[in-house]
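Late entry, 2-oxoglutaric acid complex.
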Amino acid sequence: MNWIFEVSAAERSAGQLSPSSTASVSQALRENGAVLLRHALAADLVDTLKHGFDSQWGAFTSEQMRDQARLPFPNPVLRVGEERYEVILKIKHAFLQSGIFANDLICNFLVGVLGPGMKLSGFTAVLSFPGAKQQHIHSDAPRLFNEAGPSASLPSYAINVSIPLIDVTNEIGGTGIWLGSHQWDAHRAPQPREMTNVEFQRGDCILMDYRTLHAGLPNVSTIARPILYMVYARPWFFDDSNHVGRPSLDMDTRDFERLAPHVQNLLVRAFSQRMRAQYLLRPDQ
Ligand SMILES: O=C(O)CCC(=O)C(=O)O
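Prediction complete; structure with ligand written out below:
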């Protein structure tokens, strides 16, 4: 089944997929466990986010990133593979002004998948440096149930939205995806030939079910590749497993307080986890 969809300029400016696109994309996400939306965002918005990313993390070399990742919690940098790091982004400047975390087109679609109480669960980026090897194949969280049946037949409980901040060629290395694996039996081993890989550009985004198997691909280019990750979830799910001892987003309280109530509502779980992480992990505690 097709998993790649073109977002029209009219849909982008309305902040909403058309009813027929919504139906096709929802069905493809249910069946494939991932969809790629081409041109979901304006490329100049993504360029603004890239500047925001660079001002926070762009100066780090891979050696500095490796050293930073070795520091004790709370630590905004997590090593997720060889020459590959997940960093917590501060929602400030470009990330705050653009309101990317509450993007209409993405959120209007995801509310249809995850329900009206949907919450943001994380706001991070993964940076792969030149020389990064293929990452281990994984899903984003352990299975909800160990019994054979239930996990596969359940609807999505969390969706990871990945937004490349540069055009990602095969040399730079995107993310390999095992389409349909969100419904596989726990014992089925993913084969390399079953992997789907596409080049994706600024403005595209991939929506991936939390159960879908995937792996960051090797970076054989000379430039570092940042991808923004926004995780949205049903209100009862929060991704604690990837955020042990570190916040899942970073935002100043004053900036949070200035958000419109419906946006605060979207962010409140992750923001309160950030407050708890900060309190519980104070070095003098
Ligand atoms: O680097 C990538 O393309 C994927 C990263 C990822 O899936 C992860 O770190 O969990």
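The two ends are 53 Å apart (CA to CA). Will revisit in the morning.
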